[in-house]
Design brief:
By secondary structure, the chain is an alpha/beta fold. It has helices at about 10-20, 25-35, 50-65, 85-95, 115-125, 130-140, 155-160, 165-175, 190-200, 230-240, 255-265, 280-290, 325-330, 355-365, 380-385; strands spanning about 40-45, 75-80, 105-110, 125-130, 150-155, 180-185, 205-210, 220-225, 245-250, 270-275, 295-300, 315-320, 340-350, 370. It starts with 9 loop residues before the first helix and ends in a 34-residue tail after the last helix.
């Protein structure tokens, strides 16, 4: 189905043409029509399938159909999102969709001075895209009123729940207009997400365009079993062997990210880092340099898993598996976007085998294992039989290598989740 079939306002259609959009994605086909009619919507779709346009276009259309003057500190639309990177990206994207409309759009997030944000709010704003914490600060300081916010979007709702933002979100929504339209978009659906949906927007329509918690069909998944302390060596070898360029690699902690950066520099691989201890400006520069191809590897923690939209990104590496299986879906969603092909590679130590089981159970399929010569890791079943007792910590020789020991089924029994500090 084409966007032209929606009979959108000429200004919006002109913007879509300028962006090169003609054919709608499945989530856009199913969500735009009910949202345009003013209905509440809970949408579950694979990441990278056009969710921003699915909620932004119907809101822009309704704001065009029922124009109101821009007011100081009183937005008509409120979009809440979990991270500052995603807030910035949403603002840039929605500005492109609204480039021919007389609307003022503002992104609010922490890590920057509040005074400049306050001045922009006072000057008047129609659409506010914000992280919950920063918006709450502005509300407390009376810089913004949500009483006239008639359109509310909760983007990455599951992530906001995971990050503990639900109390702030609930507080903020209590201050919005009573007759508001609420749209919730989430890459994964859980009982908690459903519960929040029932609390915040009854009644509502549910839109699902993929099987529950699915990953994109365009992404190939592989796993390299490897000892934790050999991961950096394996990563460098694979980069050189396959001539990888523009690799987004995820670690689970800031310490792991810092350690990997040191190893990459030693190996002469150009890299930048993006995690919570870095300033907003530093993170911005790292992402910009990565997008422009100035660096080969971007090392990131979970803070960058949502919102990064890098055109043509072919490869995502999980240096460490995420603590939550659902976060695997979000991490690898940075590749294989908009129908393009992508590859997700995970380095899995013996301590992460249970986390891998959780991920395979979530996505409903077994991920291919690739055993790299020189980086073998033995199964815990084999070690238990050999030593006749439960193994709590991995034991390797000085070279960090162990002989592969497989069970009769060819698979290893999941190990206790025990992460390197």
């Amino acid at each position: 189905m084409k966007f032209s079939a929606l009979d959108l306002a000429p200004e919006i259609q002109q913007a879509l043409d300028a962006c090169g959009y003609s054919q709608m994605t499945p989530v856009q086909e199913q969500a735009i029509v009910p949202a345009r009619r003013g209905k509440n919507v809970l949408a579950n779709a694979q990441t990278g399938t056009g969710k921003t346009a699915a909620f932004a276009l119907p809101i822009l259309q309704q704001m065009h159909d029922h124009p109101k003057p821009t007011e100081s500190g009183c937005p008509r639309t409120l979009i809440l999102t979990p991270t500052r990177e995603l807030a910035e990206q949403l603002a840039d994207t929605i500005k492109r969709y609204a480039q021919f409309l007389p609307l003022k759009i503002l992104a609010l997030y922490g890590g920057v001075n509040m005074d400049s944000q306050q001045k922009k709010l006072k000057a008047g704003v129609d659409i506010v895209i914000s992280t919950p914490g920063r918006l709450l600060e502005h509300v407390v300081q009376c810089n913004v009123s949500l009483a006239k916010a008639e359109f509310v979007v909760l983007d990455e709702a599951d992530r906001m729940l995971d990050m503990g933002f639900i109390a702030d979100v609930t507080t903020l929504l209590q201050q919005t207009a009573k007759k508001r339209q609420t749209l919730m978009f989430s890459a994964t659906i859980s009982p908690r997400v459903n519960e929040v949906a029932r609390q915040l927007m009854t009644p509502y329509e549910t839109v699902r365009v993929a099987k529950l918690n699915a990953t994109a069909d365009t992404v190939e998944h592989v796993v390299y079993p490897v000892e934790e302390k050999r991961k950096a060596d394996l990563f460098a070898e694979l980069i050189n062997k396959h001539q990888w360029f523009q690799v987004l690699v995820f670690t689970s902690t800031k310490a792991q990210a810092d350690s990997l950066m040191v190893d990459l520099k030693i190996d002469g691989i150009s890299a930048a880092i993006c995690h919570g201890d870095k300033s907003q400006g530093s993170r911005r520069r790292a992402i910009a340099d990565f997008k422009e191809g100035k660096i080969q590897v971007l090392v990131a923690t979970e803070v960058a898993a949502r919102g990064l939209d890098i055109q043509g990104l072919e490869l995502v590496v999980n240096f460490n598996l995420p603590y939550l299986a659902e976060d695997y879906v979000h991490r690898i969603g940075r590749t294989g976007r908009a129908g393009a092909q992508g590859k997700a590679i995970s380095f899995v130590s013996r301590e992460e085998e249970r986390a891998l089981d959780d991920i395979e159970r979530l996505i409903g399929s077994r991920i291919q294992r690739i055993y790299m010569p020189g980086y073998e890791v033995g199964s815990r079943d084999g070690l238990r039989k050999k030593l006749g007792k439960k193994i709590h910590r991995p034991r390797t020789n000085k070279a960090g290598r162990t002989k592969i020991i497989r069970s009769k089924s060819g698979t290893a029994k999941p190990a206790a989740k025990n992460r390197k500090k």
